[in-house]
């Protein structure tokens, strides 16, 4: 399709650090076809740039990061690190974790020294290097604190110092700010970009995994947009701004909007004739069961009501809607897509618009709303259709939930399958389409629902 | 372990605290050396009456008893760091080792004595060493399984992000083990070690007077002291022994249990949730000494260095999620089946040659009696301790004291109190079938109290406030508010208590005072009589039946119950 990344148009002077060639990652499954997480991924990272991997959760970008870190071998394809094949955690690559991954029984100092100790650096030198890294990252004075005494932002600073102290060529960051509150994250981002721009960081390049579009535009020189199911590089963009960047800048906003548009562009309609192409067939099948986030119906209803009301009248620019709902920009995607799945809204070029069906839902009383949702779930979600068919067929109108989770696992990992079914159950309960017996782990039809 | 060792003052001047510490250490060394010498002495002629009932001898006996405890602890640690680590690191080994551990855990420990005494005496004929080792092995069996399980669980649940960080920064397997896996396991390992040791005191007291067939050995210690006191109907000596044991447990509690548990809190991974209790005085004293502290830091330093030795390869190749080879798996399972069938066949041949069906049915009936006894005592103990525990637990201050008291009492070997009850039964001619029963739970009931207090003190305050706001009182309060929230804790406590009671049955269903021997109907009495008679066949049968009872109860009752409670009655 469109994964072949165009040659970088900006003249990049740096040397190539990492090249990933035709990388594929699949999980072996007992019962059915392998679950493909990454497929046909090609990319390269040069020195002197911050590269962003932007994609939705579950798109496999964290998996790709672990492959580059040498923590996970790709099922197929190669990782070339500084000209030779990568076979394990390399010396010049270090990582910052989403969960910080600090050792709770070690002080800040000892945590930072970890990588040095593993390399066998003598104590005196270790002490010096760690102190330098700690003060560079703005943690001077906290050397003897234990991680549990620190706030989230400070902990991530420790994680950063620990990664920097080994003077890596490539710094991998796995959603490093997503566990932090908005202000703390912004503060840490700004500090990091400033240090990078002033060339104070002992690194040549950063690879940042994120699902936050603004974060990617704020920090990166180049953004690779990941598509899901299976994960692949769908688009590549050069960010044409100098540091420091201003979020309020018109050009900045337009760039963010452009990425929104790219990420919400509707999938090409597949005609019956194309279905002979096995590649497309797979796409179509996996589209049957998209992982659903934890989304209670009330949230969806709230969003639809906002969207329908003054002054939006059923259509809104996504970033604008986000600020109106006081949501983080990237929280909107799952919401919008769920509405789209239910046939209540459409996503188009960075905009969201309510369908007539969605409008009717908003304007109806509770009972009618139930009925509309009932109808739309059955009509639009194959899994719901299957469940209902099975339950109708059974004399006792009961069926094990495990069976449907198994079915979902054909196209997603077990945790996502669990969550997806959970979400479907929540919606189905709203519509009184079917109910769930948690104790017996069974789905069943309530008397009234029959 | 690794505090700011390098920046400490370079010229270490000993202070008063150091002096006290050093004196204590030297005293301990002398005592240990003396006791150790005695172990190699030949078994004295039994009629010589080696156990003196004068209270002046008690301190020496107490030291001997304590040393046995620690020897067993050392062995248990070695076992834990080999068996559990092996089971966790090798999938195939785990398939065998873990179920085996599960079975070993339900085998009545005191039943082992018959076999181990014969074995160890044969190993060191005519020396005290053999008897000592048999006693130590008994204590070992009361600790090792539990500790190994704790270690295994911890090794299997190391947080994946820390694991990845360790690999990312290039730690070798050896370094990962000592820098990540062991520290992560420490809180649960320390806690379980302390719980096991509490149970161990009961075993050490019991195993010091060993009578197997016509071998009759009394190892100098508090247990044998009490044994002789019973023989001679000397009730004052029993009081002396209780006082001496109180001192020992107090020292153990203050010098070891509390400092270790407080220290292990540092390795807790979840943040903030733990209430920081004040440091036990031993720990703060140690921190105040100069020289001793330096020594500790140096030792810690050396330990750290060993942990950093770059043994093993650095993670050069990423660990490929091992797709188990089918062929090897099939061969392995086939080998296991062959082994199981062979063992089963041998058992069958042996069993049908030595036991009649009637005998087996009889033993199972006895098991039923003991089961009834366990059930009734757990029920009665619950009636007492649940309300009391709730009352204690609802006030943080009372809760803290109650938990300390319960821990202390759980460690105190309840068998020292048995003679007092037995004297009462003999004196008033009571029915031993009924009145020996409460002894079973004397030592283990504290687990019910301990867990109920823990449950009540962690009960969410807002729910209690809501109940008060809606004027929920009386029965409604108990059934709708307090008891459901307490259920998971109560089940843990009752499970531990009843498990201990099965074991104690062997020690409690038979009791004597002078030449009067009381005996209750039950599986414990059956095993105890068979042990004294040296009837290995009967002991074996009794143990198998008891283990089967315990396993069955765990599978059919406790496990489903606690799963159910965990699903329904937890607060998150």
TrEMBL record, chain A:
Pfam families: AAA_assoc_C, ABC_tran. One of its GO terms (molecular function) is ATP hydrolysis activity. InterPro entries: AAA+_ATPase, AAA-associated_dom_C, ABC_transporter-like_ATP-bd, ABC_transporter-like_CS, ABC_transporter_ATP-bind, P-loop_NTPase. PROSITE patterns: ABC_TRANSPORTER_1, ABC_TRANSPORTER_2. Gene3D superfamilies: P-loop containing nucleotide triphosphate hydrolases. It is an enzyme of class 3 (hydrolase). Its EC number is 3.6.3.36. Coiled coil: none annotated. PANTHER family: ALIPHATIC SULFONATES IMPORT ATP-BINDING PROTEIN SSUB, TAURINE IMPORT ATP-BINDING PROTEIN-RELATED. This is Taurine import ATP-binding protein TauB. The lineage of its organism: Bacteria, Pseudomonadati, Pseudomonadota, Alphaproteobacteria, Acetobacterales. The gene is tauB.
């Amino acid at each position: 399709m469109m994964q072949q990344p165009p040659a970088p148009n900006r003249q990049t002077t740096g040397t190539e650090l990492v090249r990933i060639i035709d990388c594929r990652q699949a999980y072996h499954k007992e019962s059915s076809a392998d679950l493909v997480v990454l497929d046909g991924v090609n990319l390269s990272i040069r020195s002197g740039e911050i590269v962003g991997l932007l994609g939705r959760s579950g798109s496999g970008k964290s998996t790709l990061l672990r492959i580059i870190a040498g923590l996970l071998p790709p099922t197929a394809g190669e990782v070339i690190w500084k000209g030779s094949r990568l076979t394990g955690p390399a010396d010049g690559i270090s990582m910052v974790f989403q969960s910080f991954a600090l050792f709770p029984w070690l002080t800040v100092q000892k945590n930072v020294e970890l990588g040095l100790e593993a390399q066998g650096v003598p104590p005196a030198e270790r002490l010096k290097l760690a102190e330098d890294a700690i003060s560079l990252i703005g943690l001077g004075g906290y050397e003897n604190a234990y991680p549990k005494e620190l706030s989230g932002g400070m902990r991530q600073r420790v994680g950063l110092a620990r990664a920097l102290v080994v003077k890596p060529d490539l710094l991998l960051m796995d959603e490093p700010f997503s566990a932090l509150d908005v202000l703390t994250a912004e503060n840490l981002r700004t500090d990091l970009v400033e240090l990078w721009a002033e060339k104070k960081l002992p690194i040549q390049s950063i690879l940042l995994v994120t699902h936050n579009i603004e974060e990617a535009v704020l920090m990166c020189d180049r953004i690779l947009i990941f598509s899901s199911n299976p994960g692949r590089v769908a688009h590549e963009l050069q960010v044409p701004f100098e540091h420091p960047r201003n979020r309020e800048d018109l050009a900045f906003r337009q760039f963010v909007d452009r990425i929104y548009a790219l990420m919400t562009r509707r999938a090409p309609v597949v005609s019956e004739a194309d279905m002979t192409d096995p590649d497309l067939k797979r796409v179509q099948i996996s589209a049957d069961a998209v992982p659903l986030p934890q989304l209670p119906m009330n949230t969806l209803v709230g969003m639809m009501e906002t969207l329908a009301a003054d002054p939006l009248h059923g259509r809104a620019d996504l970033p604008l809607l986000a600020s109106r709902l006081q949501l983080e920009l990237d929280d909107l995607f799952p919401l919008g897509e769920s509405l789209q799945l239910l046939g209540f809204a459409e996503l188009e070029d960075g905009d969201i618009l309510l369908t007539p069906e969605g409008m009717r839902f908003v304007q109806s009383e509770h009972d009618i709303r139930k009925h509309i949702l009932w109808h739309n779930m059955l009509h639009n979600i194959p899994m719901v259709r299957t469940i209902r068919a099975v339950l109708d067929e059974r004399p006792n109108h009961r069926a094990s939930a495990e069976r449907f989770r198994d079915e979902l696992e054909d196209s997603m990992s077990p945790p996502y399958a669990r969550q997806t079914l959970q979400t479907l159950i929540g919606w189905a309960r709203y519509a009184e389409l079917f109910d769930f017996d948690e104790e017996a782990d069974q789905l069943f039809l309530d008397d009234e629902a029959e | 372990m690794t505090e700011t060792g390098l920046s400490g003052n370079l010229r270490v001047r000993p202070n008063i605290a150091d002096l006290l510490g050093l004196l204590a250490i030297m005293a301990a060394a002398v005592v240990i050396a003396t006791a150790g010498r005695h172990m190699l002495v030949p078994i004295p002629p039994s009629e010589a009456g080696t156990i003196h009932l004068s209270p002046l001898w008690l301190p020496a006996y107490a030291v001997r008893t304590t040393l046995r405890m620690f020897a067993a602890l050392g062995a248990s640690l070695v076992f834990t760091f080999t068996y559990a680590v092996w089971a966790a690191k090798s999938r195939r080994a785990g398939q065998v080792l873990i179920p085996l551990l599960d079975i070993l855990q339900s085998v009545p420990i005191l039943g082992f004595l018959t076999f181990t005494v014969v074995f160890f005496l044969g190993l060191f004929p005519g020396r005290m060493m053999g008897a000592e080792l048999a006693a130590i092995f008994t204590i070992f069996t009361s600790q090792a399984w539990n500790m190994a399980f704790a270690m295994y669980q911890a090794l299997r649940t190391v947080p994946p992000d820390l694991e990845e960080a360790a690999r990312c920064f290039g730690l070798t397997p050896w370094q990962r083990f000592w820098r990540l896996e062991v520290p992560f396991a420490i809180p649960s390992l320390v806690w379980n070690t302390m719980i096991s040791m509490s149970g161990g005191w009961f075993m050490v007291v019991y195993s010091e007077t060993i009578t197997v067939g016509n071998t009759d050995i009394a190892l100098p210690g508090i247990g044998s002291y009490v044994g002789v006191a019973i023989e001679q109907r000397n009730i004052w000596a029993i009081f002396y022994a209780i006082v001496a044991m109180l001192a020992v447990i107090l020292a153990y509690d203050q010098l070891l249990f509390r400092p270790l548990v407080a220290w292990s809190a540092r390795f807790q991974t979840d943040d903030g949730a733990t209430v920081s209790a004040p440091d036990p005085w031993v720990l703060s004293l140690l921190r105040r000494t100069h020289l001793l502290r330096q020594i500790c830091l140096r030792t810690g330093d050396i330990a750290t260095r060993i942990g950093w030795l770059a043994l093993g390869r650095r993670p050069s190749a990423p660990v490929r999620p091992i797709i188990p080879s089918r062929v090897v798996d099939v061969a392995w399972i086939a080998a296991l089946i062959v082994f199981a069938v062979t063992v089963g066949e041998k058992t069958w041949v042996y069993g049908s040659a030595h036991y009649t069906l009637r005998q087996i049915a009889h033993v199972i009936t006895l098991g039923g009696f003991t089961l009834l006894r366990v059930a009734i005592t757990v029920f009665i103990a619950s009636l007492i301790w649940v309300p009391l525990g709730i009352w204690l637990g609802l006030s943080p201050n009372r809760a803290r004291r109650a938990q300390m008291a319960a821990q202390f009492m759980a460690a105190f070997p309840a068998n020292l109190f048995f003679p007092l009850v037995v004297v009462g039964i003999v004196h008033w001619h009571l029915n031993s079938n009924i009145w020996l029963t409460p002894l079973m739970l004397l030592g283990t009931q504290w687990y019910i109290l301990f867990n109920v207090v823990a449950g009540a003190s962690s009960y969410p305050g807002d729910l209690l406030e809501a109940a008060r706001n809606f004027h929920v009182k009386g029965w409604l309060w108990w059934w709708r508010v307090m008891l459901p929230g307490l259920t998971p804790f109560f089940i843990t406590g009752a499970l531990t208590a009843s498990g201990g009671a099965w074991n104690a049955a062997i020690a409690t269903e038979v009791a004597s005072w002078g030449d009067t021997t009381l005996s209750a109907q039950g599986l414990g009495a059956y095993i105890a009589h068979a042990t004294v008679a040296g009837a290995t066949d009967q002991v074996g049968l009794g143990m198998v039946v008891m283990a089967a009872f315990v396993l069955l109860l765990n599978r059919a009752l406790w496990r489903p119950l606690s799963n159910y409670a965990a699903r329904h009655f937890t607060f998150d």
